Amino acid sequence: MKSRFGRQETLLLAYAQMRKLRLLRTGELTGPLQLSGAQERELFRRLLRGGIIARVRPGLFLVPPRLPLGGAWTPDEAEALNALMADANGRYQVCGPNTFSRYGFDDQIPNLVYAYNNRLSGERRVGAVTLMLIKVADERLGDTVEIGREEAEKAVYASRARALVDAVYDWSRFNGIPRGYEWIRRELKAKRVSAAELGRCTLRYADIGTLRRMGALLEREGVAEELLRKLERRLPPTSSPIPWIPTRPKRGTLNRRWGVVMNDKK
Questions:
Q1: Does the residue 187 lie in any domain?
Q2: Residue 117 has pLDDT above 50, yes or no
Q3: Whether residue 28 sits in one domain with residue 65
Q4: Domain total of the chain
Q5: pLDDT for 145-168, tens place per residue?
Q6: Residue ranges making up the domain that contains 189
Q7: Which of 146, 147, 246, 266 is the most exposed, having the fewest neighbouring CB atoms within 10 Å of its CB?
């Protein structure tokens, strides 16, 4: 780690701070700092090695909002995601294990930051933040809240209701079934989320399998028949039932209304 800044490092950070720039691109500093291309590349390399800036992608770097105390800095998850999506001109929302942890469904703290987005897929690293980016269609983004400290950048998170629906929708990726069912029961009982919110998210963001499983679950929980009919009207006719718990054999009582085999009895 760098213990102090050289002249060029100080000039770069002062330039970015004065112009309120968080992202710098290769070629952007040759004029203002009177550097050759080779000098600029070496300056960026020194700053990266010293842990003073973070690479977003080749040729694009995220800089701290102010001179870092102690000479080292790394972005937080909000800064990393916001920088990456700003460059890609995309939208995102933190999802899956990170939302399960934040809302108290699960006590495990994930090592990766999972994010649905409409531009990129795969694992990326920005500073010390490792991101798992899941590309989805534009219409699958929504029902979000902004979370973060008042003085810091905000990250866009799936809402509490959306996180619960995602646990059922993306069960194979997030290990969301059957534990997601218990989370939903618990949140309904504690009135931290309403059946209406879950119904609305299900109708807007779920596929047919999720609609059927959520319908069967909400019916078990005794929600209003009006809401159940809204879900039911969205379902096409089917003669092929699906399992309530996809990882178990399809043996159990058939819920004909939803076309779900209730295979939760061992």
A1: yes
A2: yes
A3: yes
A4: 3
A5: 999 887 789 999 999 999 999 999
A6: 160-242
A7: 266
Question: In which region does residue 53 sit, left (phi positive, over 0), alpha (psi from -120 to 50) or beta (all else)?
Answer: beta
Domain boundary (121, 138, 158) is at 158
- Examine the pLDDT at 182 and tell me if it is beyond 80: yes
The pLDDT tens digits for 49-103 are 988 999 999 999 999 988 766 667 899 999 999 999 999 999 999 999 999 999 9
